[in-house]
Amino acid sequence: MDLSPVKLVVTDMDGTLLNSQHEVSPRFFELFEALSRRGVRFAAASGRQYESIAIKLTPILDELVIIAENGGLVRQQGRELLSTPLDAKLRDRVLHRLEEIPGTHTILCGKDTAYLKPPTPEFENLLKEYYGAYEYVDYLIGFPEEIMKIAVYHFESSEAHIYPKVQPFEDQLKVKVSGAHWVDISDPLAHKGHALKLVQEHLGIPPEATMVFGDYNNDLEMLGQAFYSFAMANAHPNVLKTARFRTESNDKGGVETILSTLLQQLG
After folding, report:
1. Which domain holds residue 214?
2. What is the pLDDT along the chain (267 residues), one digit of tens a residue?
């Protein structure tokens, strides 16, 4: 496979760049520096909040474009390139529906801070991994601040317990099963594909020179925005079907494997 046309690499975080311990490998940072010297640009695209992505990629943060909140927020060197907040009235309608689903944990994702009701101890432990900044509030319905996304967690299965209940909102909102336990609900244009298209235009790099790595349904649109679209071996069946190519799992360094090949070809 000839990877030499690649000028932009975009990678999802959880299940893709991060291993099962939610770590970025030292090898990735080495490859990043080597490829950057050869003119390759990088972006991280995740359902995570900006702060959570930034913590994982602190050593190279100033050299990255960050696509956060599933594409609802894009920043480069602290400068905002895109913001697509949720309509407040639609947001409250969704929140009313979520209150009817037992076992759910709902988070309102602002640009810099997430908001949620005081959680159970079990869910509080998860928060520290996925959210670098959050606040506890007394209520969510009618919350006055601008919100980018509603993130909903279920300890058993998001696809089985949450998605069927919020699927009727798909005619007005973007509803994505973004992980085995997560569903994300956002503005129809707040998705990684729309955000990546803006980044490509901003950098002057076309889809034919873009490489994307993903593993779950919230990656589908951005996989369609790149010729070099790679599904992780651990990917959801929809992603395996959509991507042109495959690589090894996140725990076997699938992203690094392809980037190593790219580096060899660029010389």
Report:
1. 8-83+190-266
2. 999 999 999 999 999 999 999 999 999 999 999 999 999 999 999 999 999 999 999 999 999 999 999 999 999 998 999 999 999 999 999 999 999 999 999 999 999 999 999 999 899 988 888 898 999 999 999 999 999 999 999 999 999 999 999 999 999 999 989 889 999 999 999 999 999 999 999 999 999 999 999 999 999 999 999 999 999 999 999 999 999 999 999 999 999 999 999 999 998
d(CA 33, CA 201): 23
Last-in-domain residue among 186, 219, 245 = 186
Please check whether residues 252 and 127 belong to one and the same domain. Answer: no
